């Protein structure tokens, strides 16, 4: 980790560069540990000097997480893509009866877990669409079946959108629903479904989806029950920079209230096979900028993920110097982004993750969902 030594040439050069980029005021706030505001965030987004923005984000990243870069050995299960929301940015969700619609039985999900019992999987990440007629018991049975086969695994499942749907299905509250799901084995919630909170964007892209303020309410309810959640933002489609900033500030406000968010994951929009396929999606600059700005604005979030599935392992590796401290996990097998044209693999080996992190000059830390350390991979050869 680079320590700020007064008079050090690197700091002199960076000070000059940051001044030329018009970011001196933000630099002073970052150095003093002061909170940045919405105008700062817009300025950072509009700045074309990615090295200056990344340098500032890296100061915060190293203050919070030192040289550590996390990854997890996990498995993704998308039990069904049948969905009533049919958001215009999504290629995964399908109407019942569509040629590409699918749903897994509880036994099929059980088999998916059983098939990988010889691997050191510590987390099962499970989400699906908003199904029109699966009963609540199906979701409880999924959790119970996974726990039956793999009792020690942490199940991170169901977005806030799905929780609101299940509560409505039950005629019950999100609080009661989460309590019952937890009893059946739910460990935490992933960050999906947040999209961009802006009502304008939701109206244009996902008007049937749970509104942003209610997404936040479900997340805060989970936190108050002691269930951690993640948060995402889908960027690079129709949203403005100001709408991204509002999204980040709303998350920061919620985190001030509950402290229950573990990680923020910016999700790079993939246009293929979606109703927005005429758009090109974000660039590499945009990918790095979203990670860096998130690190700077979300000062109360312990972790920022560079999700290799969406931005590619190479850029995710670089992102470890631009604010990110986590590359997510082995994943196998990603479906949501691949249906929208992702060209990354559907899984990555933990050895590869360790090597990517080491080469970036960081210390690879294999973690649990709740960021407990399983192994610190030093310089010895990776074993998995
Ligand atoms: O909610 C949908 C997004 C999310 C597209 O919590 C798309 O650790 C890009 O939330 N291009 C699901 N993104 C994935 C997700 C996630 C992934 C990894 C880790 C975590 C975590 C959460 O994917 C959806 C939606 O926002 N999405 N379509 C698309 N075309």
TrEMBL record:
Its pathway is: Quinol/quinone metabolism; menaquinone biosynthesis
Q: How is the cofactor bound?
A: Binds 1 [4Fe-4S] cluster. The cluster is coordinated with 3 cysteines and an exchangeable S-adenosyl-L-methionine.
Radical SAM core domain location? 69-302
CDD domains, per database record: Radical_SAM
Which top EC class applies here?
transferase
Binding-site residues, [4Fe-4S] cluster: 83, 87, 90
InterPro entries per UniProt: Aldolase_TIM, CofH/MnqC-like_C, Elp3/MiaA/NifB-like_rSAM, F420, FO_synthase_su2, MqnE, rSAM, rSAM_sf
UniProt entry tagged with the keyword Transport: no
* Its job: Radical SAM enzyme that catalyzes the addition of the adenosyl radical to the double bond of 3-[(1-carboxyvinyl)oxy]benzoate, leading to aminodeoxyfutalosine (AFL), a key intermediate in the formation of menaquinone (MK, vitamin K2) from chorismate.
Name this polypeptide is given: Aminodeoxyfutalosine synthase
